[in-house]
Design a protein that fits this description.
Two copies of one chain form a homodimer. With 316 residues, chain A is an alpha/beta fold. The first copy, chain A, contains eight helices and 13 strands. In chain A, the strands form three sheets. The first copy, chain A, has a five-stranded mixed sheet, sandwiched between helices. The longest helix of chain A is centred in the last third of the chain and has 25 residues. The two termini of chain A are 16 Å apart.
Chain lengths: 316, 316
């Protein structure tokens, strides 16, 4: 019997889950709307039923466990705690609730940590013991691996590089503070930077014709690919801020590589090239030339499920 | 036969070494001037002779290994690399050189990592798996423990929190960059802050009567204990900057405690109280109330030898 696990990614809108073998092959995948289940018990019932349905179509496998990526997930406790984008309030003992329905190992962590596990088990960090994954979406998530182990810390919530303050007194952040890295180095940070630059620069720009509420990182990337001067400057500014977060993190854990993942990273060399430049320019001299800045080695379409599956494979 | 190790602390001026048992008792201790041995081979000869002399006076022990704390020490390679305050240039294979004289396990790391090992094995972090030690001397050194393991990173030089940039474009640092944490949060940073405040403030201060070249952190602490307004403000300013470095580090590894150690930490509550206040005020909400800011649990007189001894005990 071949062994198989389930990888689950719980997002504010969708929950995606799939069956994954040890080689990282997604055997089957399905999804439903997280928002259809405002009560946690009905969510758990739906999730277990969904996994069982996938399993019933695949004979010849031994089912070994469930790995889950979810916002505000606590690895130590198997809980989701005070997640602002989910309907379930308070501290949700998700791992316990699932184990009551299906007696099998269940582990969970946040989505950035799951992405890092995916990178280590199936992606570009297979042979690395020390690396960092930054997920550049609406916010900036991070998963940190040191000595081959995910860093969860005393609370289970370690790895919040998005909330490193890099500009004292800087931009308002959703965490209630100012100047956090993610207010600059994320898809939404890039959009904020465009608005700032439109106020600072006098150059013509196609971005002046888009209502701010409709601006997206993708539109900025498209403008940059057409050499729009504001869009180009916005990527340079964003790269400099992201590099700031990266070189301070390098001084902490001296990783072999930093992987950039998610929406903003899809912009490619227009982001990577200046990030590499600013990291090398500004990193402490002892670390110059020691850190690779890389795109993720995981296909983005499967990343969430593969990362969560990697989490449980790594624990088994 | 009771087991025993040697702990060695190599400083720019003095080399201190002692024999330490598993309980952390210093059985014998000696020292010589590092500067008396500008050639590494003669230094190694003197060190091994010194340890053998201590051992010859203590019968009934089995000698198990040597732990060394030294500037720019690389744990992975057993080398001292490009240390600006030592006479030995280039990359010095110290562990290998010692093992050629005395066939025994030899490990080395930098002094801040050794301090953290001392805290874990013999001090206030005995039951902790995640903590950080900051040594506040001329510079700011740091030793980081995650999952019960020292963080060395891919290069072996991880844990350089003193060179986290906290003020972009700020004070000139010895590393060639600007605004590093140690230019504010260290004994010399405190003195720089006094000079800055003497320019900013109009209040009377006994510190106005001391030539800047003769100002020390101790003199500032003495002035603060007499309620000197500039000295008090200098400690508050220093604490705020140190807190900045600490709360960003908390977001990285979510430690159970941060230990403050060395010259500046001896100022006691005049430093600790505002550091705790500024950390709680500014740390990401999810980590509020989760981190203790503590003085070291190791007596400072023995700290260097105990830390180095802890390093080898932990490896054995």
């Amino acid at each position: 019997m071949k062994e198989i696990v389930a990888g689950v990614d719980i997002g504010g809108t969708n929950t995606v889950f799939g069956l994954v073998d040890r080689a990282g092959k997604v055997i089957a995948e399905s999804r439903f709307k997280t928002t259809d289940y405002p009560k946690i018990n009905s969510f758990v019932t739906a999730l277990v039923a969904g996994i069982n349905k996938l399993l019933s179509g695949k004979k010849g496998y031994t089912f070994k466990g469930i790995g889950i990526g979810a916002p505000n997930a606590n690895y130590h406790k198997g809980t989701i705690e005070l997640a602002p984008n989910l309907a379930w309030k308070g501290i949700v003992p998700l791992a316990d609730l699932i184990r009551k329905k299906i007696n099998i190992p269940v582990v969970l962590t946040n989505d950035a940590n799951a992405a890092a596990m995916g990178e280590m088990v199936f992606g570009g960090a297979k042979k690395m013991k020390d690396f960092i994954v930054l997920t550049l979406g609406t916010g900036l998530g991070s998963g940190i691996v040191i000595n081959g182990q995910m860093v969860y810390g005393h609370t289970g919530f370690a790895g919040e590089l998005g909330h490193t303050i890099i500009v004292p007194g800087g931009r308002d952040c959703g965490c209630g503070r100012q100047g956090c890295l993610e207010t600059y180095a994320s898809a939404s940070g890039l959009v904020r930077t465009v608005l700032y630059l439109l106020s600072e620069m006098k150059e013509e720009s196609i971005l002046r014709n888009i209502p701010p509420a409709e601006l997206t990182a993708r539109k900025v990337a498209e403008a940059a690919s057409k050499k729009d001067p504001v869009a180009l400057e916005a990527f340079d500014f964003t790269a400099e801020k992201l590099a700031f977060g990266i070189f301070n993190a390098i001084g902490f854990s001296s990783p072999e590589a930093v992987f950039l993942f998610g929406g903003l990273a899809n912009a490619g060399e227009i982001l990577f090239e200046p990030v590499r430049k600013y990291v090398e320019m500004n990193v402490q001299p002892i670390f110059r030339g020691t850190v690779k800045i890389l795109p993720s080695g995981i296909p983005e379409s499967n990343a969430a499920v593969l990362g969560s599956a990697a989490l449980i494979w790594n624990d088994l």
